[in-house]
Prior knowledge:
By secondary structure, the chain is an alpha+beta fold.
Amino acid sequence: MESKYEIKKEEFHFRTETNGDKKTPLECNAHMHYEIEYFLLLEGETVVYIDSMEYKLNAGDLCVVFPNQIHQFKTLSEEKYMLIIFSPDMVPELTDTFTSRIPRSAVLRAAELTEDCEKLMRRMGEINSSMGEYRRVQMRGMLLTFFGFILDKMSLTDVKSVSSHALKTVVNYCARNFSRDLSLSILEEDLHISKYYISHLFSMKLKVRFNDYINSLRINDACRQLRQTDKTVTEISECVGFNTLRTFNRAFVRQIGMSPSEYRKQGEIEMRSVSMIG
């Protein structure tokens, strides 16, 4: 399945089928990203393709896509749903589970779920739009509660035991090692996969250059540190793997549309505004 690698700028995203007055179906082309994506189908029918598996979902079913799994949705009838996409870094207690394991089945059927699942998802959507001072703390707690229940019902297996698929091996390696000095030659030596083939995977399967992909992982983590730590921009640049501050700033502006300092300042202004309202 040919896919595209997506760069997510938001740490948490909530969506329903209605965006204002516009209907937004679940249907999408094959893609992958570092974030976890899950949705609860409230009405309608949808077919989901995840890696090499196909699932048909009906009302009440829940689908969970782990990081770096290629997935595609096809709408069969008009849907109502709740969809959440979030970074595994929001719940570090589960990051290892999310990045080193995958479900044998990505779908939990309606009979396996309780009304609490829908209530938790709705509440997360409300909190996401509230801009409260402790919004992230509340969201973390709800995500841990939600997945504490969901993962207990899923049969998980190590990524390596499921597939030797080269693309999955490469992207999972990069997700764990992006802060190191990485190159195609280093991946070739560590993974025993031709660097020319790795380059081909990125350009043909993900539609992105290897260096741009690594930079996207680094910038995503830099955004997190700018929001959550007091580290200087220089310290963060080094921490996420950039050799020079100039290279970091250039890559950051290209991906986010503003400098790291502007990004941090914007976050501080938003937090002050929330405090004044509260």
